[in-house]
Write a structure and sequence with these properties.
2 copies of one chain form a homodimer.
Chain A: H1 5-9, H2 14-21, E1 28-29, H3 42-60, H4 70-82, E2 92-95, H5 98-109, E3 115-120, H6 124-130, E4 136-143, E5 146-147, H7 149-157, E6 164-167, H8 181-191, E7 198-201, E8 226-231, E9 243-246, H9 249-263, H10 268-280, H11 283-308, E10 314-315, E11 323-327, H12 334-343, E12 346-347, E13 349-350, E14 363-367, H13 373-393
Parallel strand pairs in A: 1-12, 3-4, 3-6, 6-7, 7-8
Antiparallel strand pairs in A: 2-9, 4-5, 8-9, 10-11, 11-14, 13-14
Helix pairs in contact in A: 3-10, 4-10, 5-6, 5-9, 11-13
Chain lengths: ~400, ~400
């Protein structure tokens, strides 16, 4: 069977393949990227579901509009308003998780050979979604202040401009880093000179541990070039697969047409359940619970890393989200290390898949949202032993 | 803002734009393509939902596997077995409605300029899904026996073979026609000579009014080139957006990777609800109810057409599904006629969008699944008056 060129470019997600290996409950897995199901507001969602079945089952089980259930779109607009984004329902499209918005942006904007500019590292699920559109990737260096606007400015001076910019300014997957307010202001000032669509992927923006989340790019978007992606996956639950795209109306119309072709519309029942849940519950209380638990686990993991990891390992200490990023010295390959880790029943995600343009195998991602305290301590301890052995033996670990 | 070439090819769905005009409840709409919500088994689905919340809420609200919830895949395999299709879970992928399967086939197989072969007419939602892949369309003549295998044989002798075949052998949208068993056998015999993937879209195969549905192409698929698309939208409810792709394992793996990039996986809650519903209910009883009501309405609509439509109009008399197809004499344009019809508060879908390669504006589609008896009679009466005026005035209707 002969496949398309898009298909030749695409590859199975590393992460999802590793996750299959960690299905064994004995494995202490820092590999996942899923929320803790203990935090799902099951009772409140059950009540909302009961109400939907009682009041609007015929509608909730029927085909709906491509744009999505209007009362939910209105509630999302109110939520975004709290984050400084002004939008109206014609600028909002409901999608099957923010992932669908990422992928649609490829279809809407990319021709083969076009350049996609992203942070280094960037979300591997976005990289994989854009690969079938046969782009080049340009990675922009990122540090604890966020993307390097200076490096971006140089790239944008080149003759061939990127056709699409993809960024995750808050508690980025994989590195856990956030852009400072100053970085955001400088970034948006720079972007005012260009007409390049900017996908602002923001699944973690609400999950800040201390202080207030800096303003979103969309809230500073004078030209209307920012395509903001939001999601209920990390603040409510992911199984309902409900996210949204907020963009200038003329841009959003293109996404609506792509959505019609892709799957007509997203699950109606899920949209009505979430709208009803938001009617009767303050999602900020739910978010507060998530933040407290994740913060506790992150602090615990950082403390364990300080205690058990070799001094040669650098790591981020995120103020939100679900991930810590660890960098080994040059020359180490975390795909190899993972094999030893799995033998010791502890797992992480090797960082290679988060670098679409560069070769970089010395980093890995740790997730802190799902493991309980004792497993965080024990898992980091085991991992520290393995990393130490690699350091001691210089890239080789015979006896972990 | 500059968009991709794919985006320039894509266009908003005619149908969904017309449906917005028919939202006024005074309009007698034969334009829709939706099931009658009075038939949704709301109580049984409510019970299934309660059980999911009670027994497996944490799982149903969490991320799931890309392939879909295994117990539901197993139940679908049992359902397909009744239709003569042998498959195992590794050959099945759950998607957000069969529409998503249609679209994915474009991504998996099509490069720009490739030819897609389809029936004439064919489902406009498939045509629109493939347009962004910049294909050529080849329409194959279709009559009451189904696709013309003779015409197909000639097309396949040409040097440039189609890269993808898309067909709807059962009660096709829009024409309501079904392929005879003989057509299917001849078609599959012909296709044995080639290695061309065949998308068999089968949302209506269960909804046969009299006799038994002829065997699916997939059940005769010796080479494993048929990609079968099934859906719960017309036999249970569409709001849960659950359909499936059944294909040879190596082909299916490609669709799984595309699904990962597209939206990670479909709604988990919906999958668990449907699996639980199927556990406790015989879906064939549900299908029987749907068939009886739709058959009644189809008979009524055909009787009204016989009574009120001008003798110059040809129409299909389907043995299943949801649609009747009407053909006006040459020279008439049903997009114009629709304007007069909407003024008289009756609606249909003009046929032009169902012909991807040819210019054909003289046909239109009537849906019989949702309107009650008196409205079918009254709507067809109004429409008959309008059509008669067009016939009498020769393409022009000043006073409907």
């Amino acid at each position: 069977m002969k496949y398309s060129k898009a298909m030749e470019a695409i590859k199975p997600s590393d992460i999802r393949e590793i996750l299959k290996l960690t299905a064994n409950p004995e494995v202490i897995s820092f590999a996942g990227g899923v929320p803790d199901p203990d935090l799902f507001p099951i009772e409140a969602l059950k009540k909302a579901t009961d109400e939907v079945f009682e009041k609007s089952a015929r509608r909730a089980l029927q085909y709906g509009t491509t744009e999505g259930f209007l009362p939910l779109r209105e509630k999302i607009i109110a939520m975004m308003k709290e984050r400084g984004i002004d939008a109206d329902p014609d600028q909002l499209l409901l999608v099957t998780g923010a992932q669908q918005g990422i992928e649609f942006a490829g279809k809407v904007f990319l021709n083969p050979g076009d350049a996609v500019l992203c942070e280094s590292p960037s979300y591997s699920g976005a990289v994989n979604a854009y690969l079938p559109y046969l782009p080049k990737f340009i990675e922009v260096p990122t540090n604890d202040d966020g993307i390097s606007v200076e490096a971006m400015a140089k790239i944008l001076e080149m003759e061939e401009k990127p056709r699409l910019i993809y960024v995750i300014p808050n508690f980025q997957n994989p590195a856990g880093r956030s852009w400072t307010t100053e970085t955001r202001i400088k970034f948006m000032e720079l972007m005012e000179k260009y007409d390049i669509p900017i996908v602002e992927d923001d699944p973690y923006g609400n999950l800040i541990f201390e202080g207030e989340t800096p303003p979103s790019l969309k809230s500073m978007d004078k030209k209307g070039n920012v395509i903001y992606l939001g999601s209920f996956s990390k603040i409510l639950c992911p199984g309902l697969r409900t996210g949204w795209i907020c963009a200038r109306e003329d841009i959003l119309r293109k996404f609506v047409v792509v959505k019609q072709c892709a799957d007509i519309h997203s699950n109606s029942l899920a949209q009505e359940i979430i709208a009803t849940y938001l009617e009767h519950n303050d999602i900020n209380e739910q978010i507060e619970k998530i933040k407290q638990l994740y913060r506790h686990r992150k602090d615990l993991m950082i403390a364990a890393i300080e205690k058990y990891f070799p001094a040669e390992c650098k790591y981020t200490n995120p103020n939100g989200g679900m991930f810590i990023w660890v960098e080994m010295p040059d020359g180490f390959n975390t795909r190899d290390i993972l094999k030893d880790a799995l033998a010791e029943k502890v797992a992480f995600i090797p960082g290679g898949g988060f670098f679409p343009a560069e070769e970089n195998e010395k980093c890995f991602r740790l997730n802190f949202s799902t493991m309980h305290d004792d497993r965080i301590e024990e898992g980091i301890k085991r991992l520290g032993r393995i990393l130490q052995a690699y350091i001691d033996n210089g890239k080789k670990c015979d006896e972990a």
